[in-house]
Amino acid sequence: MEQIKKRIKKAFAKAPKFELVELPFIDVSEDPVRPELSLEFRQAYGRKIYGIKDEEGDIAAVMCFAFTHEIPKSVEDMDALSKDAAMQAVHRAGIQGDIAIAYTVWAKKKGGGKHMVNEVYKMIKESSNLNRLVTLSPLTEMATKFHLKNGAKQVGKNLTTQNFEYDIELEKWEVFKNRAKGWFNIK
């Protein structure tokens, strides 16, 4: 009976609000996954760093991305593919890569990683040029459990990395919602 009460209370509890923001700076030494990658690397060739701010305005989690047209099998591969996509973007009005490669994520607050994945998932679903969300994850049990628990499917296992993909195809109700927004000029 006590467990049922807890579940009901949890279901009606106010979910925390998060805001996805692009970060101009991070302390790369805080990154438990890829601390060897410099800030310059993370910002070069259209790569971006995102964070989620919680209700207090604190950064709850951080995720770094590269934008490519193919799924990389290593950090070196990702570097080359994101450079290629950046060079192609010069001729495409700045639209760079149709695959968002998440290559590191870490929580600064409890639960931040899961909320980060949810916010990034929404951003990519709403994007006009991104059609895939794929990871370049280390070969660790922790990474595997994290992505599988958050709904990803493993799409590659490489020499030093593994790839997981999150399904970002719009549900039928989301297609109708987007159409309705267009009809009523809602942003």
Oligomer: single chain
Q: The biggest beta sheet, please?
A: 8 strands, mixed
Report the average pLDDT across residues: 85
Radius of gyration, whole Å: 18 Å
Taken as a percent bin, the fraction of beta residues is 15-25%
Contiguous low-pLDDT stretches (5 residues minimum) are none
User: Strand-and-helix sequence, N→C?
Assistant: HEHEEHEHEEHEEH
Q: Give me the count of strands.
A: 8
- The CATH first-level class comes to Alpha Beta
Which topology does CATH recognise? Aminopeptidase
The CATH superfamily is known as Gcn5-related N-acetyltransferase (GNAT)
Could you give a quick summary of the protein structure above?
With 187 residues, the chain is of the alpha+beta class. It has helices spanning 2-12, 39-43, 75-89, 112-126, 141-149, 172-183; strands at 19-22, 48-53, 59-68, 99-107, 132-135, 137-138, 153-157, 161-166.
